[in-house]
Amino acid sequence: MIFPSISVRAPLNPVSPLILKPPPKPSSFRPVRCSNHQQNPDTIDKSVKPSTHLINPITVAIEVVNKKNNEKRRGDEERRRGCFSQMGSQQMLGLCGFGYGVQGFRCFPWLALNFHMAHILRLDPSMIQVVQNIGNLPMVVKPLFGILSDAFYIGGAHRVPYIFIGGLLQILSWGALSLIPAAGQALASLMLCVLLSNLGASITEVAQDALVAEYGQKHRRTGLQTYAFMALAGGGILGNLFGGCLLQKMQPNTMFRAFAVLLLFQVAVCLIAKEDSLGLPQPADQNLVKKSIFEGVREQCSNLMITISEDSISHPLAWAVASIAMVPILSAPIFCYQTQCLCLDPSTIGMSRVVSQLMLLSATVLYNQFWKRIPMRKLIGTVQLLYASSLLLDLVLVRQINLSLGIPNEVFALCFSGFAETIAQFKLLPFSVLFASLCPSGCEGSLTSFLASAFCLSSILSGVFGAGLASLIGITSGDYSSLPVGILIQFLAALAPLWWIHLVPMVEPAAEKEKKKGMSKRSRRNRRIGRVALESFSAYRREREFE
């Protein structure tokens, strides 16, 4: 840089543009001499300042006024937005809590349906399990519903209308079973109603899961998945409690009708709720609303394939699906053994489900408060080992070991019958939180529905393997002698996923992000300064050593 030749002894002061103006012409008027002052009349009063210096103060005053007005306007907008967000948050909690509560209450009509198939239709345990798993086939096509809900808006909304449609389909299925007696007598019509009910439930679940994920990311609410699990467990508690108590006093058709009435309330809530008040992103213009379904589906499919190809999603998803699918479930044979051989009352079966849902609710609260700080791989490994051990509790009941310990069958079934199912449901909670934190914006419905479909498909495969195992080892409605062998095979299969537990991440990415966000700027600057100083000190030591 070339500096000008200016003496360093004289300071360089900035020159104002006003000084560079030509000097004013001498005035012909002489100043008036005041009688009170003794001064030379030829001198001019130097206290008078030129008026041109008032420009800058006026500009500063205007800027201050504008700044104050902007701050006031911004404060009004923030207060208005905060009030609007609070109203949307309350509506979201109500919509989410009631929706997941109804979803958990679905065990109420299904308990009646299982007794209807076992005691009225006299179906074999393997056939009951086949009906249950084939009925879950609509859950496999959840990704299609998720892609549609992401790409296709109905009336300017893309979550609440799909919850409404799913509720209507469930009302048609359970209403037909309750009002048309022939629908529940023939296996084909019964299967059709079950498929229609699960179709509506799958659409509703996809929309609700996507709504929770999208709202949580938009407003940075990380506890909505836990809240949804709590509402789901609460609905399961009420459904099993009322189902076990009312099954002895009511016919299954009456219970189907009661659940259809509850679905009517859910549909009414969807009609009242306004999705735009939740603060979710709306279509930018009418072209997005009028965009063809094919283009939207193709775009969402491409985004979904890119998302699930990431190692942070594909690896834990592969482990979760494999850990569910490779364990053959013997739920129907054990249910028939408890009701036919042990002659347990429906109230005992229902109360055992209530206890299991209470345990699930307690585990969800503990996870939200304490267990989510545990490394995910360690937590999932412990849960999987506990799940494999809990499967042996059915062996204790089948071998009647509990009687030798002085525990009646009713008490043992009430406390431990649903323990394994509770652990299996809780195992999905950390994965749901992980995938919700990794879900990109605009792909909430597609990803959550794909995950739910993958979990459902693995459960169907597990049920099919269980039905095949029951037929292979000779478990029938009159012969349960081979049931202990099937339980031992379950136990060994549940231990196998521990061999590739390394696919599960140690720490959730969301926790890492929050840890980085929690560090202040000053701390990060101090860490950088300290690192630079340490490196400089090390370099200095190396130079001195080489000298």
Describe this structure in words.
With 547 residues, the protein is an all-alpha fold. 70% of the residues lie in helices and 0% in strands. It has 23 helices and no strands. It has helices at residues 55-104, 107-120, 125-135, 142-151, 160-179, 187-219, 224-246, 252-272, 286-289, 293-308, 311-325, 331-341, 346-369, 376-390, 392-398, 401-404, 409-416, 419-426, 428-438, 444-473, 483-495, 509-518, 521-546. It is globular and about 80 Å long. The two termini are 36 Å apart.
Sheet having the most strands = none
Q: Span from first to last CA?
A: 36 Å
**Oligomeric state of shown chains:** single chain
Total beta strands: 0
Topology diagram in text:
Blueprint: H1 55-104, H2 107-120, H3 125-135, H4 142-151, H5 160-179, H6 187-219, H7 224-246, H8 252-272, H9 286-289, H10 293-308, H11 311-325, H12 331-341, H13 346-369, H14 376-390, H15 392-398, H16 401-404, H17 409-416, H18 419-426, H19 428-438, H20 444-473, H21 483-495, H22 509-518, H23 521-546
